[in-house]
Design goal:
heterodimer; A: 158 residues; alpha/beta; Beta Polymerase, domain 2; two-stranded parallel sheet; 3 helices; 22% helix; 29% strand; elongated; B: 395 residues; alpha+beta; Cytochrome-c3 Hydrogenase, chain B; three-stranded antiparallel sheet; 8 strands; 13% strand
Chain lengths: 158, 395
């Protein structure tokens, strides 16, 4: 299925939950509403015409305009087609629905996005930091992150 | 110490199932033990928090991050796209060539750049040599995990020859910084082709020796067959890739299914597990996929060496690359599976965002699923068969 067809199908089924899209980009993407993430992702996985059963990657992004985002790179092992789905959320209230029960691999990816960007994933069973230490202050990949001068009483060299 | 997680109820051997010869049910209290962070069979600094009932593993909670070196943060602070490559080298330090290629390919797609044909062939040769070297480590250390010391020494002996070839090419033996955006750093040295052909001829019989001493060894089979069975649907749901996914019988290889380089011009077959020694998707299947992939890699190298064209080894690109606004997610087949780079450009010379989707990180996340209900000793077999490199898990 082409990105255009995927977009049209989602648009027909979910209407305004498809917020924005750029289908002429090098890798076309579709942005969906944050409160419909779970419903749309379940549909993408289970609908026989889509069958996006393989989530390649889940990345957090800081767009530096007051928004954080999550980008899902999906792939279908059956139909061999791809889709890029985006979800945005405001930086001061970063909440996105978890998709760990749709794709098991999302569990660790979401923990990483939480660790680096401070995005809360509603419904995640085990949202702990994964790469940084548990007591690390702040979320390092946010663009406005300032490296603390001291960490646990130790001076940070730069 | 308390466990805050809900414990699973679907493990294979239920507590209370083990009975003494008089029919009395044996039960012990659940206990938490730590394996790692400095345990020899964790292949690095990985800590596994294991909930055990006697000798049976009830749950495994991996703790990672000990080797976190902020690859993604560093990438956003480079002032040139090329400067990220030495950092990419250090992600999966057993397969640096594949990492370099993955990142370089992502930036090239962002630039819509075609590299000269000679570069494509050199990259294929290097990546496949690296794949053999990486698999040799995986198989050798797996032998050690299972108590076989000799194969480990044999594997390292053969890997030395590959490292010699790399040293000859770019001066480094482990972290190469050889594949650059737009090409490679140096042309192949004189006699490289000859030496590489020599290596192929030398290596082919060695695979048979390895099979004789380890693969079809009865003790090894008893330890790995029917252990850590990963069904294909779970593997796909957890986005496992590489030998992990192929071991479960899914015929899927990015070199064929999402082609890059010149793999589509060469003759080779992806190797899948067939459940020969036990259940499909057990540790032995994952192991044998790696052995057979080495043989396929030799085939690829021989063909690429024969077809190696003359020409430039660098495309004409400016020193400071400025891709247009845009983003790409490019995935390549590293020895461990799908290595993806998600690169966003804001039009400047610095990457706006580089996300590395490392296969070992994703493959490790399925570990709790496949190790519930096994014995502690089998957990060692399962961790070894996943073939993690902690440098890449933690990035």
């Amino acid at each position: 299925m082409t990105p255009q067809e995927i977009h049209d199908n989602l648009r027909a089924k979910f209407g305004d939950a498809v917020v924005e899209s750029k289908l002429d980009a090098q890798q076309p993407w579709i942005r969906i509403a944050a409160d419909k993430t779970n419903a749309i992702c379940t549909f993408l996985r289970d609908e026989p015409a889509f069958q996006f059963d393989f989530m390649s990657c889940l990345s957090g992004v800081d767009y530096n305009d007051g928004n954080l985002g999550i980008v899902y790179h999906l792939y279908s092992m059956t139909h061999k087609h791809k889709a890029v789905i985006r979800v945005n959320c405001p930086k001061d209230n970063a909440r996105i629905q978890s998709v760990h029960d749709i794709w098991g691999t999302a569990n660790w990816h979401e923990r990483e996005a939480f660790d680096m960007y401070g995005i809360q994933f509603d419904g995640h069973p085990d949202l702990r930091r994964i790469l940084c230490p548990d007591d690390y202050p702040g979320f390092p990949l946010r663009k406005d992150f300032q490296v603390p001068e001291f960490y646990n009483g130790m001076k940070v060299p730069y | 110490m308390t466990v805050s997680k809900t414990l699973p109820t679907n493990y294979v051997t239920q507590p209370g199932e083990i009975k003494s010869s008089t029919g009395k049910t044996l039960r012990t209290d659940e206990m938490i033990i730590n394996m790692g962070p400095q345990h020899p069979s964790t292949h690095g600094v990985l800590r596994l928090e294991i909930v055990v009932d006697g000798e049976i593993v009830v749950d495994v909670i991996p703790h990672i991050g000990y080797l976190h070196r902020c690859f993604e943060k560093h990438s956003e602070h480079m002032n040139n796209y090329q400067q990220v490559i030495p950092y990419a080298d250090r992600m999966d330090y057993l397969a640096s060539m594949n990492n370099d290629w993955g990142y370089a390919l992502a930036v090239e797609r962002l630039l819509k750049l075609e590299v000269p044909p000679r570069v494509e062939y050199i990259r294929v040769i290097m990546a496949e040599l690296q794949r053999i070297a990486s698999h040799l480590i995986a198989l050798g250390t797996y032998g050690i995990d299972m108590g076989a010391f000799t194969p480990f020494l044999w594997c390292f002996r053969d890997r030395e020859r590959i490292l010699d070839l790399f040293e000859m090419t770019c001066g480094a033996r482990l972290l190469y910084n050889y594949i650059w955006v737009g090409g490679v750093s140096h042309d192949l040295p004189p006699k490289f082709v000859e030496k590489a052909k020599e290596f192929c001829a030398y290596f082919k019989p060695k695979v048979k020796e390895l099979n004789d001493v380890l693969t079809y060894n009865k003790i090894f089979i008893e330890r790995t067959a029917n252990v850590g069975v990963l069904p294909a649907d779970v593997a796909i749901n957890y986005a496992c890739s590489g030998p992990m996914l192929r071991g479960s019988g899914v015929n899927w290889d990015l070199r064929r299914d999402d082609p890059y380089g010149v793999y589509d011009k060469l003759e080779w077959q992806p190797q899948v597990g067939k459940g020969e020694m036990g259940a499909l998707g057990d540790c032995w299947d994952r192991y044998i996929v790696r052995v057979r992939e080495m043989e396929e890699s030799v085939r690829i190298i021989e063909q690429a060496l024969a077809a190696l064209p003359e020409g430039n080894v660098q495309a004409a690109i400016p020193k400071r690359i400025r891709p247009d606004h845009g983003e790409v997610y490019v995935r390549t087949e590293s020895p461990r599976g799908e290595l993806g780079f998600y690169v966003i450009s804001d039009g400047s010379t610095t990457p706006y965002r580089v996300k590395a989707r490392s296969p070992a990180f994703v493959n490790l996340s399925v570990l709790p699923e496949i190790s519930r209900g096994c014995m502690i000793a089998d957990l060692v077999a399962i961790v070894g068969s996943v073939d993690i490199v902690l440098g890449e898990v933690d990035r």
